[in-house]
């Protein structure tokens, strides 16, 4: 009862509403309509407010009316029609020093591909520290994850040592024999050398134009699309770059879909 709660909290330090040193920006592009599980993601993300902001980048997404009152740490950023392709194309073209004509072709290809194959945006997760750099401001860290998750009380799981000592940390769900950065949860220090590890992967850098041309050709010919996961080259190059990388077993195993399993969810915490 109330007396027990008072005893448990007696003398306990007050938890600040915002961490005094660290702030993580989780960067999430969302192409297409809002998925049906988005309300659950948003509700659970609110529990991370002391440490994490969730920046969801979209193109004229029509939000359900209940999202009008969003948690303060969940921010939907409207980039306008074709805005994601434009931002990815401009930032990568600029960083790679592409001539204007090449950069224009790059942007056109990305716009076409994102329009017909929205999942492709996940291939560029390693570049998010560059693509969204104008939104990172004073954030100490940035990261990427997926939307089809219940976030839970993540600040209780993130260790201070991970924020202080690791350049990149990622959470797995027990498959520790697979040494790669998980697309479901990877966080980076917001530092130029860390943010540009992607340039060590040819399909994102010196062969980006060729890779996009192949993807466009396959799309127009109705062939299977090429998808190069961020969990491949990028994971290897992060280690080769002599960065401090940590893979920790802190991710819950997902439910099968469809599933009859029930998971208690109370005040933002999963039990």
* Count of alpha/pi helices: 10
Beta-strand percent range: 15-25%
CATH class: Alpha Beta
CATH architecture: Alpha-Beta Complex
Number of structural units classed as domains:
1
Distance between the termini: 21 Å
Low-confidence stretches: none
Using only CA atoms, what is the Rg?
20 Å
Overall 3D form:
globular
Helix content: 25-40%
Order of helices and strands: HEHEEHHHHEHEEHHHEEE
Strand arrangement in the largest pleated sheet = 3-2-1-4-6-5-7
- Tell me the total number of β-strands: 9
Largest sheet: 7 strands, mixed
CATH topology: Spore Coat Polysaccharide Biosynthesis Protein SpsA, Chain A
Mean pLDDT: 87
User: Would you tell me the structural class of the helices and strands?
Assistant: alpha/beta
Assembly status: single chain
């Amino acid at each position: 009862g109330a007396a027990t709660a008072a005893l448990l909290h007696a003398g306990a330090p007050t938890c600040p509403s915002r961490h005094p040193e660290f702030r993580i920006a989780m960067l999430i592009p969302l192409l297409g309509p809002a998925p049906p599980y988005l309300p659950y993601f948003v509700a659970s993300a609110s529990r991370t407010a002391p440490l994490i902001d969730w920046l969801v980048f979209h193109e004229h997404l029509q939000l359900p009316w209940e999202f009008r009152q969003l948690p303060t740490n969940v921010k939907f950023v409207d980039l306008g029609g074709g805005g994601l392709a434009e931002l990815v194309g401009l930032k990568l073209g600029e960083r790679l020093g592409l001539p204007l004509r090449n950069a224009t072709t790059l942007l056109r290809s990305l716009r076409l591909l994102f329009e017909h194959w929205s999942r492709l945006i996940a291939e560029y997760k390693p570049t998010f520290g560059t693509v969204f750099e104008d939104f990172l401001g004073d954030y100490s860290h940035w990261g990427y994850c997926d939307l089809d998750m219940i976030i839970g009380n993540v600040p209780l799981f993130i260790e201070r040592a991970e924020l202080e000592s690791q350049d990149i940390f990622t959470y797995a769900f027990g498959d520790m024999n697979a040494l790669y950065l998980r697309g479901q949860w990877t966080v980076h220090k917001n530092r130029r050398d860390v943010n540009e590890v992607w340039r060590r992967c040819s399909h994102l850098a010196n062969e980006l134009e060729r890779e996009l041309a192949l993807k466009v050709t396959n799309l127009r010919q109705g062939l299977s699309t090429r998808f190069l996961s961020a969990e491949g080259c990028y994971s290897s190059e992060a280690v080769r770059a002599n960065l401090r990388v940590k893979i920790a077993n802190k991710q819950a195993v997902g439910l099968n879909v469809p599933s009859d399993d029930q998971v208690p969810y109370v005040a933002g915490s999963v039990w």
